[in-house]
Amino acid sequence: FSRLKQSLTKTREVLAGKVEGLVYGRTTVDESLYEELEEILIQADVGVETSLELVARVRERMKAQKLDDPTKLKPILKDELRRIFAGGDETANLRLDGDPTVILVVGVNGTGKTTSIGKLAHLLRRDGKKVLLAAADTFRAAAIDQLEIWAHRAGVELIRHGEGADPAAVVYDAIQAARAREYDVLIIDTAGRLHTRVNLMEELKKVFRVVSRELPGAPQEVLLVLDATTGHNAVNQAKIFGEAVGVTGIVLTKLDGTAKGGIVAAIRNSQKIPVKLVGTGERIEDLSYFHAGEFVDGLLG
Ligand code: GDP
């Protein structure tokens, strides 16, 4: 079992169990089957629109192939679910072709941003990259200290200023350091206070401008961290950040603790932003690249 599949155990127990229950004892396919399937998907946080779209496509295919056997439902559903992630076997990758590569990490406090940065630093370092972190969430000293702990765990350096410093200045310094000391990847932590949304988006845009001015072509990635357990709040956050800073990928955390794994499909289908990384636990190694095939197997068995 891959970590991704394992982290979906709770979702799978609920979702696969319900889909099997739906089919069990039925000998023919009728409209009530599709209606119940819609319900089941919506309850698994696949999202109303995405669930309706999915079921409509399953229904069409069943009809086109003149299938009246309820057991054919699940394989077709899995196939349609995979198609949401385009390319069928899509494996997410990060663009790491910068010199240095800059990865800007954004997201609301509490979603697991700091933890994910630590895990990502570990992952990239394990792949032989020289990684530098920048503590550009300067609003709380505790946030900077927390990032320092993760930098230490991952065995990477951190550029930090004091509490209340200008995030753009931290980023400027980090870029100079990354250049001078020939780092491969600079990962930038940013603030995540959504209740001051306008200020936050302005701050992020300013950081973005400094990065792209100092290093044309950067940032190579803008990763948005979302908490899978928050269901549709996560979809809304994807919308807000996506409009403000042009998110290139999503890091979906806490997939291990939730039965809401269907949220991945809702985000992918409604925002068209790829899920690139998935948090599967609290340890430093609990971060996996997203893989559509494994995800769908993890969801439905
Ligand atoms: P931040 O405020 O967004 O920086 O959030 P933190 O990185 O401090 O994480 C908040 C909490 O979520 C911590 O207790 C983490 O251990 C926990 N957490 C983060 N990612 C995951 C994950 O993938 N799985 C689980 N189970 N917990 C996670």
UniProtKB/TrEMBL annotation:
It catalyses: GTP + H2O = GDP + phosphate + H(+). Involved in targeting and insertion of nascent membrane proteins into the cytoplasmic membrane. Acts as a receptor for the complex formed by the signal recognition particle (SRP) and the ribosome-nascent chain (RNC). InterPro entries: AAA+_ATPase (IPR003593), P-loop_NTPase (IPR027417), Signal_recog_particl_SRP54_hlx (IPR013822), SR_rcpt_FtsY (IPR004390), SRP/SRP_N (IPR036225), SRP54_GTPase_dom (IPR000897), SRP54_N_sf (IPR042101). It is an enzyme of class 3 (hydrolase). Keywords: Cell membrane, Cytoplasm, GTP-binding, Hydrolase, Membrane, Nucleotide-binding, Receptor. Its main location: membrane. Gene3D superfamilies: P-loop containing nucleotide triphosphate hydrolases (3.40.50.300), Signal recognition particle SRP54, nucleotide-binding domain (1.20.120.140). GO terms for cellular component: cytoplasm; plasma membrane. It is a peripheral membrane protein. Belongs to the GTP-binding SRP family. FtsY subfamily. GO terms for molecular function: GTP binding; GTPase activity; signal recognition particle binding. PROSITE patterns: SRP54. This is Signal recognition particle receptor FtsY. Its EC number is 3.6.5.4. It comes from the Bacteria. One of its GO terms (biological process) is SRP-dependent cotranslational protein targeting to membrane. It is found in: Cell membrane; Cytoplasm. Residues 274-287 form the SRP54-type proteins GTP-binding domain. GTP binds at residues 107-114, 189-193, 253-256. It comes from Desulforudis audaxviator (strain MP104C). Pfam families: SRP54, SRP54_N. The keyword Amino-acid biosynthesis does not apply. Part of the signal recognition particle protein translocation system, which is composed of SRP and FtsY.
